[in-house]
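Entry for the shared binder. Reason: the reviewer on the internal report wants the predicted structure included alongside the sequence.
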Amino acid sequence: MRSSFSLLFLSLFLALPAPALEVQEKAEKPSPTLGVPLSTPLGKALASFDAERYRKELLWWASDERDGRETGTRGAREARAWALARFEEFGLIPMGVEVGGKRTYDQPFPIHIQMRDQVDPAEARLTLAGKDLLFLRDWTLLGGRRKAEIGEASLVFGGYGLTDEDLVRCGAKGKVLVLREGRPGKPLDMVRDPRPGWLPTFLAKAKRAARFGALALLMVSPPGSKRPLFSEHQDLVPWRGSFCPVIQLSWKASQALMKDLQAGEGGKAGTFPGVKVTLKYAADKERVGRNLIGLWKGSDPKLSKEYLVIGAHRDHIGIGAYGSRARKQRGEIHNGADDNATGSVGVIEIARALATARFHPKRSILFILFDAEEMGLIGSRYWVRHPTVPLERVVAMINMDMIGRVRDKKCQVMGTNTSPAWEAALKKATARSPLEWRILPSGFGGSDHLPFMMSQIPAVFFHSGLHPDYHTPQDDPEKCNPRGAVEALKVLLYTAQQIADAPARPKFQAPKRSGRRPRRRFTLGVALRQTGKGPEVRAVVKGSLAEKLGIQEGDLLLSINGRRVRSISDVYRRLRRASRSKKITVTWSRGTRKFTKSSPVKAKK
């Protein structure tokens, strides 16, 4: 699920949710098939869910081997291949793009990388002593050059590299230079330590390495330091020709390399006999995301040409370079078990249930595993703009995001006020569920149902609630509740069946505001994505204040009412203050140009 700290929809749609509706009828006893006869295809599908199978699937998706499933990384590619094999196994029809005249399951899309996230992980290569190191797990780029290609180079050690004498002693010219971070007796943690204190010394080392002719600079952790990778910026050392590439190794990779060090006199210099390094990366390419799309064909000759989308995002935030709520643990693997391995497994298990029961509702079911949700709903927004089936034939969308932390047998569905059809379907589906269900009419949380809602497609969002482990390395599979998740999936499938089999498609209705006074009484009307440069506008709501001011997609917000905004949270705070003033002044940039415009404040009542 996209964090409110990294994606915040400050639009006319945002309002407090209306009071939750309790739709589960307590008088009826819970049923393993929700009261549906086992002899029916739907009953067989509902009976086929298995909590133990769900648990094992979840363990695979959220293991450390997946490296947090950040878009474009090895772990994300493995998750795609795993899900694709399941789609094929269950007989889903490929509904991605055509390649060579044949439909595939994939829908690739470009991701315009921002400052701190330049290099495509799929194209980054670093080999030490014949061993491939993984980008963003074993090493990261700290800047210096936009691209590099070094083959079979020797390494030399220059100690801490604090003086010219250190580099003269080791002979760095034409070799890859290895330096320890920080100073003797003062280990450096670039993530946790205040940057103004260590940045000048760090940049001085980078300049010295380039001045003495090093091909590249490898920064390793000092003895005893288990600091995380500094993954916040890949341009910490400026991109210009006066620097060489600057690489930081993880503390594990640092330990492995330093075992091969043959130190010279005094331990201030040395070599690595027999160890060669190869390096290749490019920071001038777009990263590519991939939505995975499979079709379960409907049974009705006419209605099968309409589609119900069941989706979830399969990506997470990797090692926490962006979106992590645990700043001191950035650089550690964020497994994203609940967010959103639980939803990814949910998509697979619902497809499995339909295939097992050979149950084909009247309308077709389009299963989509979205990519790059954590970067700003990029995959779902791209699909809505470039649908692989006619968008006007998509009757509804059901989204799963964080369904694995069912506690006290409670779960929730949001967004039912997008169509009157939802409430009736959910009332029937939840009546004999062992879970207690909260039905929230409003549901504009930052997840993949939003682009569908904004395209006037009825959409709901299944969710088991936030928790302290959200967007931290502690979101592990052992803390999830497979039995609760499976019960949620049953309700989702029963709800989907009613929408898919209804004679008429659900009618979209614009979400209504609650009778309560909204928390955000003043809105700008933009969707934002956090970047290294600041909050970037990803979408502008039609008719909003932002559109009237002239703000466009791709602009960077700089200040509101004269106060600088560095993060999306800053934008929220500035807008809250603006609601108490008579006018608002916004400053933003577009390329090299800067704009400042003002407007009277019209607070929402």
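Summary line for the report: Residues 117-282 form a domain with the Glucose Oxidase; domain 1 fold (CATH 3.50.30.30).
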